[in-house]
Amino acid sequence: MINGSDTGFVLMSAALVMLMTSPGxxxxxxxxxxxKNVLSTMMQSFFLLCLxxxxxxxxxYSLAFGPDIGHVIGSLSWIGLKNVSMAPNPDYSxxxxxxxFAVFQMMFAVITPALITGAFAERMKFASFALxxxxxxxxxxxxxxxxxxxxxxxxxxxxxxxxxxxxxxxLSSGVSALVCALMLGRRKGYPNEPLPxxxxxxxxxxxxxxxxxxxxFNAGSALAANGLAVSAFIATNTAAAVAALxxxxxxxxxxxxxxxxxxxxxxxxxxxxxxxxxxxxSVGSAMLIGIMAGMVCYSAVVFVxxxxxxxxxxxxxxxxxxxxxxxxxxxxxxxxxVINGAGNNGLFFGNAGLLGAQAVAVxxxxxxxxxxxxxxxxxxxxxxxxxxxxxxxxxxxxxxxHKESAYTLLD
Amino acid sequence: MINGSDTGFVLMSAALVMLMTSPGxxxxxxxxxxxKNVLSTMMQSFFLLCLxxxxxxxxxYSLAFGPDIGHVIGSLSWIGLKNVSMAPNPDYSxxxxxxxFAVFQMMFAVITPALITGAFAERMKFASFALxxxxxxxxxxxxxxxxxxxxxxxxxxxxxxxxxxxxxxxLSSGVSALVCALMLGRRKGYPNEPLPxxxxxxxxxxxxxxxxxxxxFNAGSALAANGLAVSAFIATNTAAAVAALxxxxxxxxxxxxxxxxxxxxxxxxxxxxxxxxxxxxSVGSAMLIGIMAGMVCYSAVVFVxxxxxxxxxxxxxxxxxxxxxxxxxxxxxxxxxVINGAGNNGLFFGNAGLLGAQAVAVxxxxxxxxxxxxxxxxxxxxxxxxxxxxxxxxxxxxxxxHKESAYTLLD
Amino acid sequence: MINGSDTGFVLMSAALVMLMTSPGxxxxxxxxxxxKNVLSTMMQSFFLLCLxxxxxxxxxYSLAFGPDIGHVIGSLSWIGLKNVSMAPNPDYSxxxxxxxFAVFQMMFAVITPALITGAFAERMKFASFALxxxxxxxxxxxxxxxxxxxxxxxxxxxxxxxxxxxxxxxLSSGVSALVCALMLGRRKGYPNEPLPxxxxxxxxxxxxxxxxxxxxFNAGSALAANGLAVSAFIATNTAAAVAALxxxxxxxxxxxxxxxxxxxxxxxxxxxxxxxxxxxxSVGSAMLIGIMAGMVCYSAVVFVxxxxxxxxxxxxxxxxxxxxxxxxxxxxxxxxxVINGAGNNGLFFGNAGLLGAQAVAVxxxxxxxxxxxxxxxxxxxxxxxxxxxxxxxxxxxxxxxHKESAYTLLD
Amino acid sequence: xxxxxxxxxxxxxxAVMKALDEREIYLKTVSxxxxxxxxxxxxxxxxxxxxxxxxxKKVRLEIAVNDSYLQPTVEAIIKGAxxxxxxxxxxxxLELAECIRIRTGETGGVAIG
Amino acid sequence: xxxxxxxxxxxxxxAVMKALDEREIYLKTVSxxxxxxxxxxxxxxxxxxxxxxxxxKKVRLEIAVNDSYLQPTVEAIIKGAxxxxxxxxxxxxLELAECIRIRTGETGGVAIG
Amino acid sequence: xxxxxxxxxxxxxxAVMKALDEREIYLKTVSxxxxxxxxxxxxxxxxxxxxxxxxxKKVRLEIAVNDSYLQPTVEAIIKGAxxxxxxxxxxxxLELAECIRIRTGETGGVAIG
Lengths: 411, 411, 411, 113, 113, 113
Ligand SMILES: Nc1ncnc2c1ncn2[C@@H]1O[C@H](COP(=O)(O)OP(=O)(O)O)[C@@H](O)[C@H]1O
Ligand SMILES: Nc1ncnc2c1ncn2[C@@H]1O[C@H](COP(=O)(O)OP(=O)(O)O)[C@@H](O)[C@H]1O
Ligand SMILES: Nc1ncnc2c1ncn2[C@@H]1O[C@H](COP(=O)(O)OP(=O)(O)O)[C@@H](O)[C@H]1O
Fold this sequence. Notes:
The complex is a heterohexamer, with three copies of chain A and three copies of chain D. The termini of chain A are far apart. Chain A is globular. Chain A has a single domain (4-402), classed as Orthogonal Bundle (Ammonium transporter fold), CATH 1.10.3430.10. Helices cover 68% and strands 1% of the residues of chain A. Chain A has helices spanning 4-32, 38-65, 98-120, 126-149, 154-157, 166-184, 200-219, 227-255, 260-274, 283-308, 316-334, 352-383, 390-395, 397-402; strands spanning 68-69, 73-74. In chain A, strands 1-2 form a two-stranded antiparallel sheet. Chain D has a single domain (2-32, 58-112), classed as Alpha-Beta Plaits. Chain D is 26% helix and 38% strand. Chain D contains three helices and seven strands, in the order E-H-E-E-E-E-H-E-E-H. Chains in contact: A-B, A-C, A-D, A-E, A-F, B-C, B-D, B-E, B-F, C-D, C-E, C-F, D-E, D-F, E-F. At the A-B interface, helix 1, helix 2 and helix 3 of A face helix 1, helix 7, helix 8, helix 9 and helix 10 of B. Strand 2 of chain E pairs antiparallel with strand 2 of chain F. Bound molecules: adenosine-5'-diphosphate (ADP) (3 copies). One adenosine-5'-diphosphate sits between chains D (7, 35-39, 56, 58, 86-90) and F (27-29, 62-64, 101-103, 112).
């Protein structure tokens, strides 16, 4: 039966998740790039909000959550939200309108490809980006989402736990981002020339709005205004805070000063990492997960990337890919049935099986994302080309892709 | 009887609508003007949040929603929110405190005159703006609001449907904006000199916050956390996305590139247009309405305005006036009783009568807004003058109207 | 019994209060400082969000709200949120999970020390700031919170009313800010050289987000989605609007022009002032309180500070200290049992006793905050020193404390 | 050849550019500067504090001209920028030793226009 | 001694700096300017309005050199900035009467490098 | 007449202005520049990457003076800006051919002050 409190709470949560993509992610990423590319970077988030909203309504939701076909994909019987009514669908949520579940999930489908854009900032053609994102959402996101969350999805069936999208959202986008970074190649000048963030206050604005919106993302994933939502809220906030402190502490010790970018990045890493675990773990476990997130993502961003010298411009892989991976595995370690009866116990609470399932999910999502992203990029490279030309890259994408500039110069 | 879920949902919705005016509209408009006028532009939104909050509590709510006098205006028996208690008023909302209905409506009364400020940006005297807005809110907004939404209001009585303010908010303000643009005259230099937006990232921030807040505006207008709110939420998001895509597609075809400003403007046009229809139409209809919004508002802003060379600086008419008009008529075409039993069927669902009522509402609101706005501006021109003088316009309104500047120059 | 509507409403309110600290306060304060210090200023808010989130979970909540010890402090039996379950704790809130009450209160514990940072902007060492804030939160905030709000707290026992934190949040931080300003000494150049705000649009963004978040702060403090929350919402909005108008009116009369900074500051002063009273007073009283807030805080900021020439850089004392004080006393004047049965009548409604209790609370909090803040600063000065050296102050704290700069210069 | 540097009120730039266009002087370089002159700072008021910062926003115009164009350039600037009130700005003229067009490598008088 | 002032396309700055480095000319001062030359403004489009603002973002490079370094400096700038298309910019050379290093008070040719 | 151009550390501007005021040199024009000199870039660290951008924020001061004021101007700048550490900046002196006050049209030495 429809429950008003749950409905109101999930409606507001959906709004909060929308805010994460734009202005949240738009400003987080936009502040990090150079002045001449800020609009093109923000545009990618904003455009995906538009594009995926339509894709989801038209067929994306049906593919991801529609009646199961062979455990791998949803059927097309819900296209155009046909049969998605205001009655609840107990497979997904017994107390809110089915259409609300669909629109809440829409906001996840929107932000996931937007996360990837961190990898190809400052050099990708707009048309190619748009085509890639549409295909990726359809061929990667929708199936993976079905496997993990769809009724009948095969990863769900083997017991994988992913509360709010560690594998579906962060791992899939993060790994794909790495493939993008490798295939697009580095920005001109990277890593020899300095490419400092053009507006760090935007980065902080974006990170703060992401943190705020993440309450809708994780607590909202309880799909009810209940104790589980509260538990997820606390785990989320705690992991974000701890990961940010961890990151800053490492900087303080190793480089002498904690930085704003470190704090912001650490918080986002903590948020990404706690995501799959947020509805299954205690506040103490959330702290440990936050510490892991801070330490491992820091290493990935600062050491691994610099060693391998690929140009994941805004660290979509280091933060979301690695964070999603740790989070999925940590769920296999720290999950507790006393926190969430619908979940399972993890290794530290006597059940080794869960960790296995989580590892399978990680492996499968990584491999599938790599293969599909690779194939899609190859294809688009043939048809449209991936990168703007050198001259356009030098002039900047705001001018060359959108005929606009972000700021005027004269007062 | 008071229902906690509905109360909580409408409280949050009211907060979201407040956010639309400032920082939402403040940044959307503020980014579009030149550096020297950004504070004066933002100030207009912020100031109206303060001014109208008080006007509404003191007498605005009573005029708009108070006990009906002759179908045209509310009586003064609710001034100072007298008799507006925590018990529900079933005329307006059976499940939330009457006072909550009043404060939710307050946020609509706040944003409506703020929308007009787009027309007189960069040249209107602050005192004249303040006086105009107060009078306009009292003499235009409050009566029109009563006609359409007030218990006993004559447009309501003839069956006009306006879910969240297509006529009350967008049409009334948009048409008045056109009158303001014509009577104030053009900015110095317009249209010969380039007047590019001084900060496009602010425009995107504002547009995104408007989109976010619009969930409170439209879904909140269900006044309950129920299926209708969900339906309005989806229609809103869909129309915004489709209108933005339509706008960008037109640009892409006609000018070679989609722009950030196009996307942002298209989204706002879609949001304005879906507003009156949002609680009465299916998601499919919302798509069609979005396409119409994109195409017609684009034409109004790009072709009509440039042909007629009036200076509606920030396109308050082209976006909100035209959007409100299309939306009201589209409601007459696409409304469906199966979506909202309290509504009616539109032309495409077998009932031509509704379209007639909608057309009457459009005609009446247009004529009334034009006449009153014209008269008010004439009056204020006599008393205070409307425009700053040439020197002040050159120096900029931030300095001359507020003795402030937005940004320092030296680092 | 747990109530879903209340749970959902308080969850969202907690998210809103989180938003107040960062980006709300971060941008309000960050816009006011000079370019070279903007990151260090914003960082203080963001860092406290991280630090206090952890402190609160670890032991802060237990000290403040844990089982009472001698009416002065909570015991340590709730450390790590032990025994803070998803069942309600009727001492604090009968209808929401106890853990939700804890996390809602967390956001108050976060913002309170962040308010103080306004006093030492642009000159305090980061390490000293961090240590000070942690100790202050533990030794000032937690006990004061226990006295006023903790079950068994002695100020609560004598009948002090503080709905959402006039004494606990604003008075304690504002008075401590004054001590900080005095002990740190003035910024180099103050008051002889001009130190204009480097980005007034950020100030407006911050103030607007504070206003928005304050609905969660005050209405959320009803801890239920009910009439009391509605009443607090209206009082909050009204007082903010009236105080802003009052401030701008004074400027208009005395300096010829109303300013954006005046409007923003007035609104925040109104919000701070109404905070303790918001759940106890009528909308009419809220107006009067708003006028008082505007007039008295204006005098404190403009006349008193300039006369005494201490450098409370961002007016944390003048706005929050004075505002909290007036608000606490005004609660003693304007409170009404008909608004909130759990409250009491104030002097104007026939009960002089309440004013006495409020005055005691003000006195106690002022004296305690001064003494402890003084002692803490002395201690930290010995151990770490309080101020950066002259060279570092000249170069700016962004570089010297965080090795970052907020904006790049070349396009 | 001369290099003319003019410091103008920001809001006079458009008028000056128009006056220069009339004299067919199209090439120029513009930048933001802060000026400190006889003009008292436009007083701004922040929370009651009058910030009489005497650094005022100005615009700096740089124009390289052949000698025969010096007179018209100066005239145009004065025409566009003069109000007769304090703060109108200054024109500085420097001897220009050489001018090179990067595109072609041309030097001297032909490179200037 | 000479003062070389060059107006460049913003995105050519890196290449010019590299070319200067190769010739061991390290000291310079850079600023943002808006240029108005033969180049038509990069047309931007805002709500259908083509803003052919003919003020285009450029970078201004200022390099003080001893006379013997003039030639390499000019060469390096041309090497780094030349595309052959309109908008490449100009180099202006002024006679430098004196140069003083603030740190040491040194003057003349030794102070320049 | 001379045109003095000084490149200073941003945070020394106030001290320099004070020193100039003491010598009754009030008129000047200030702008933001990025300097590249012997000073190694203040290293900033973004996600572990040390951005040793060798372009450092500086302030550019332009003062037109009559010849008799040249010495005091240079002295004042040195007094206000000198720390003895690398990065203190440079002073460049150019011959000023003409100076015109836009407000009055006055030229030469009287127009400078
Ligand atoms: N001697 C000078 N050196 C450098 N800049 C100057 C000089 N004199 C004037 N300026 C610039 O010209 C601007 C206008 O000068 P000001 O004295 O205010 O006006 P006026 O020329 O009308 O007396 C100043 O703000 C400053 O930027
Ligand atoms: N005579 C001049 N005076 C000042 N600046 C000039 C002059 N000529 C060119 N410039 C600057 O150089 C830039 C490039 O000049 P432009 O004419 O577009 O290119 P080109 O040198 O290839 O013909 C201009 O935008 C302007 O900033
Ligand atoms: N030859 C030059 N040409 C142009 N600018 C210079 C020159 N030499 C120094 N500068 C400017 O002066 C600043 C300070 O110079 P630097 O070499 O760092 O200090 P110092 O003068 O103490 O050796 C530089 O950042 C640069 O902006």
